[in-house]
Specification:
41% of the residues lie in helices and 24% in strands. It is built from eleven helices and 13 strands. Strands 10-9-8-13-11-12 form a six-stranded mixed sheet, with helices on both faces. A four-stranded parallel sheet has the order 2-1-6-7, sandwiched between helices.
Length: 285
Amino acid sequence: MSKFFCDSNSELWYTRFDEFDATCIKMPYTVNGIEAFYDLGRETDNRKFFDEMRGGATVKTQALNQHDYMGYFEPVLKSGEDIIYVHFSRAMSGTFDSMEKAIAELKEKYPERKITTVDTKNISMGTGMVVYYALKKHAEGATDDEIVKFVESFREKIKVYFTVDDLVYLKRGGRLSAFKAAMGTIFNIKPIISTSAEGKLVNILNAKGRKKAIHTLVNYLESGKVDLNYPISIMNADTDADTALTIDMIREKYPQADIWQQLVGPVVGCHCGPDTIGMIFVSAE
């Protein structure tokens, strides 16, 4: 039996993660130069983090190094277990270069052991939804190959849409030019962002105003043919009123829906900023 790994960029809330026997790789970030590691909300005060951002704190994300990955993986291999790691999108971070170096070294050291990795091609609960159902498969006794096949199929059904409130954070992260950020702010443009098949963030639409942007998010449930056998996840960066509004809109259309709601974590929050709101669901197609 393999040991299941995910990472905290999945943002699967710790109470759901704790339903399973698995290890979460904690991803790093800094606030005013002080390093921390996200723990799926177990002890991190996500609201405080966003308050610090609003107050002008300098926040950054970092990549794990080869030694970090060795520290997670080697004890498991040494104990005689294999590893299956379901992770966030490779296209969004250079951290996987360090991971590959660690795996190459560990394979030489433990040639009899197997390390399997599979890319969800997503982030936040776009990854978390895949991780949650992959964990269920793992708990039921699925092999690593079966989990890989499941992830590669299930990830195609995951739909992610989110909108940010302040364009400055997309500009700082290099995902929006200074000119577009300035024009968007002047004209109250709220971008609708999704993930591509390659696992990259893409601006798919621009809405005029915050409420229109939220309406647009909810409308994707119908156009995306939501599968109500799975939960609809609402992620928010400390914006309770808009979260309540979004849930009310969903309830009007789909009163039977199972809705998960939770806070965005600091690593993802560094790039999207306070008051971001997102919706993740599984498509029937």
